[in-house]
Amino acid sequence: MHLHKYEKIWLLFGIGSLVVFLLVLGYGAFWQGTHPQSHGITIDPNNIESNEAFKPENLGLTQVEEDKYILNIAASAFYYDLGKDEDGNAVRHIRVPKGSTVLFQVASKDVVHGFNVAGTNVNMMVEPGYISSLETVMKNPGTYTIVCNEYCGIGHHMMYATLEVYE
Amino acid sequence: MQSKEVSASKDKEKNRQDLKGTLVSVSILGAILIISWVGAYILFISR
Amino acid sequence: MELAKKNIDEQSLGQLTIQKTESKLYMSYITVAFVALLIGGLMGLLQVFVRSGRFTLPFGIDYYQVLTVHGVILGLVLTTYFIIGFHFSLMGKTVGISTKQRKLAWLAFWIMVIGTVLTATAILLGQASVLYTFYAPLQAHPAFYIGLAMVIIGSWIAGFVNWRQLYVWKKAHPREKSPLLAFMVTINTLLWFIATLGVAAAVLIQFIPWSLGYAETINVLVSRTLFWYFGHPLVYFWLLPAYMAWYAIIPKIIGGKLFSDSLARMSFVLFLFFSIPVGFHHQLTEPGIDPTWKFIQVALTFMVVIPSLMTAFSMFATFEITGRRKGFKGLFGWFKHLPWKDVRFLAPFIGMLAFIPGGAGGIINASHQMNAVVHNTIWVTGHFHLTVATTVMLTFFGISYWLIPHLRGRTLTPKLNRLGIIQAIIWTVGMTIMSGAMHIEGLLGAPRRSSYSEYGGGEQVSEWIGYQLAQAIGGTILFIGIILMVYIFIKLTFFAPKGDEEFPIAEEEPDAEQTPAFFENWKLWIGITVALILFAYTIPFVDIIQNSPPGSVPFDWPIGR
After folding, report:
1. Is the CB of residue C325 less than 8 Å away from at least one CB of chain B?
2. pLDDT value at position C456?
């Protein structure tokens, strides 16, 4: 099988680029820990409250250190439960200071959902039986819409909240 | 089975085919692939 | 007398005459595809209207029901029927079909039609608004899954007939290499068969018993993994017929020869190897799959780029060699003189161009952690409207302009050719606007597969809605393109003047390098394919099963059942 000289050049260049892409990705993933979320931690899909993090009183934002927060969320069709505020009202808006590290933990009570802080890299599938979690530094200030980005039923587009990163 | 010499001379003939336009075209294509990928990578890093 | 002479001419080129009884079969498959195009396109139009926020669906029709019809009928029905019709036409032309094989092909057709009707009924009654991916534990009516299973089984029978066709030809032509197009059809049907085993297993073992109430729960991650084991090769099953036309038909249309028979075969073999063990790149942001295995499948995904790089070179080289032989000089003289006014060339050519940004986007999507930027955003929708809805569709349209009149004993008139060119331009303009807006909106974070929503307001969302308006404009232009294409289809099928339209198949150069015999070693190709699949899937799949959470009970109320 014969290859034209230029085709050899082209394939070497193309394959070389793909290898460079993979090295960049692999370095980020394995050495800097930027793998997409994959923890394989399971939970009973019929009783997510059996897990400490998803007990009603632990839902929502908790500050654990100066710049460190945990945000626990129970997802169900078609609602993100972010806990309750002091007055007993449902929280729909989360605020964290710029530069803080946030650990997002989400579990589903029913079907598959998505969890995307739109415009950031916080983008996870949420599947019954698993805890989806991702820790990240919120470095860009702004107000972000949290959307369910996996179809979960006829009210799918009504499933949202907001997250504000303030200066 | 072809003899080695015949296939060697054919190789030369094939290489003489003028494919400069093709090389330039695929290079443009390659540049588009790389620019888009690097752009998306920068977006990923900045977020 | 004249007909007899023609037969001999064609046979000396290794081509057969398609009989009337055959063309009826091939046209049946293709007709279903065009009916699907019209219905599915209308659904697409309704979606972009709804999502613009300026329109609501009448009669209480749900957005997601419309979306399910759109995905199932265009992604599964149109593509599968057109491809099988095209496969059969190519096999009939290059290796022939026996009466018994033809009857089996009809059986395949009717099984697929019954399955399609079952699935469509479930969707239209609002009992299956689960989208074409039907992710558990959303539960549709059993008829939805049973219908899908029948479509797959029908398509298997069609594939088995194709293999038999080549086998019979090989027996009659010992020591000859199989015709290039028959080789390519065999690769694509093999790819389809191996890939659909995954989704068939999910549907038959998991979904049907669960939807009938025999199984209480379902393993969600197993079902998703089996689905995506099928879901990625599915897109290559769409793409390879387009590549068949690019490699083996376009050169003839532009008045050239095959660039290289062996390289064409090589790229198809590479597609068989690397389009299956890569399903995890659709599951990169899922919680239950080991990240190292995700990365391994990302690397394998990058391997599948290579045959496309080869194809790009072959296409440009075919154009350049043909142009230079015609005497056009300079770096791009050959380019200027391509047959731009021949829609059989123009439509597929625009398809090739669309595959450049399409491919670039695909590499980004598959880039492991970078997938978080785009996963489930409307960027992905923009991506596959470039690849399948432009590259593949425009090539299929390009094929239709000669295949339909050939099968119907009619001709492509200059007027229809001109309409075809207008159609291709409308498609390009509409898709550039719609897909472009989807790509940008996706990078801004907007989700795919979502009805119109203001998400409680805010600056970010109002920005998204602007792009959704642009999508409505692009979608409307595309729908005009669909109406025009259906009109051309009807003209070519029933009204174009009688005559002989050429079935263009490119020949090799007289002094072409001999194709190595190892390409006919099917056991080797299948062996490597299976080995790669086992390598990529065994360990993570066992891991998924061993570390499974409790199964999920069905949920039907979220889809309005």
Report:
1. no
2. 86
Residues in chain B with CB shorter than 8 Å from the CB of C324 are 18
**B neighbour chains, 3+ CB pairs within 8 Å:** A, C
Which tokens is C6 given?
């023609």
H helix intervals, C173-260: 180-201, 208-211, 220-248, 250-253
Rounded mean pLDDT for each run of 10 residues along chain C, 561 residues in total: 45 76 96 97 96 90 95 96 98 96 97 97 95 95 97 97 96 92 97 97 96 95 97 96 97 95 96 96 95 96 96 96 91 92 97 97 96 96 97 98 97 97 98 97 96 91 95 97 98 96 93 89 96 96 95 95 86
Token pair belonging to C130: 């689960």
- Residues C440 and C379: their CA atoms lie apart, in Å, by 7
Can you say whether the dihedral through the CA atoms of C59, C60, C64, C68 is positive or negative? negative
A22-43 tens-digit pLDDT: 999 999 999 998 999 988 899 9
The CA radius of gyration of chain A, in Å to the nearest whole number, is 20
Question: What are the sequence ranges of the domains in chain C?
Answer: 8-510+524-547
Pairing of strands A101-108, A68-76: parallel
Contacts of C97 (CB under 8 A, 6+ apart): C22, C88, C91, C105, C161, C165
Neighbors of chain C by Cβ distance (3+ pairs < 8 Å): A, B
From the list C335, C361, C372, the residue facing B21 with the nearest CB is: C335
**Is residue A44 very low, low, confident or very high in pLDDT (cuts 50, 70, 90)?**
very high
Residues facing A69 on adjacent strands: A63, A102
**pTM confidence score:** 0.95
CA distance C277 to C453: 37
Q: How many CB atoms lie within 10 A of CB C95?
A: 24
Comparing CA positions, the residue from C294, C181, C278 lying closest to residue C235 is C278
* Cβ C47 vs Cβ C67: under 8 Å: yes
Give the mutation candidate from B6, B11, B17, B26 for the A interface (greatest A CB count, under 10 A).
Answer: B26
Q: Left if phi > 0, otherwise alpha if psi is -120 to 50, otherwise beta: which for C414?
A: alpha
Helix (H) / strand (E) element for C528: namely helix C522-546
**CATH, domain range C8-510+524-547:** 1.20.210.10
For the annotated catalytic residues of C, the residue numbers are 232, 236, 383-385, 448-449
Closest Cα partner for C402 from C128, C146, C18, C113? C18
Residues in chain C: 561
Q: A62: part of which helix (H) or strand (E)?
A: strand A60-65
Cβ-Cβ contacts under 8 Å, C129 against chain A: 154
Task: Kindly list the domain boundaries of chain B, sorted by start residue.
Answer: 1-47
> Per residue, what are the HEC states of A119-163?
CCCCEEEECCCECEEEEEECCCCEEEEEECCCCCCCCHHHCEEEE
CA–CA separation, C102 vs C97, rounded Å? 6
- Closest CA relative to residue C485, chosen from C38, C115, C180: C38
What was the ipTM of the complex prediction? Answer: 0.96
B23: nearest CB among A10, A21, A121:
A10
State whether C372 and A147 contact (CB < 8 Å). Answer: no
Q: A120: closest CA among A93, A106, A140?
A: A140
A5 touches chain B (CB under 8 A): yes
Contacts of B7 in chain A (CB under 8 A): 2
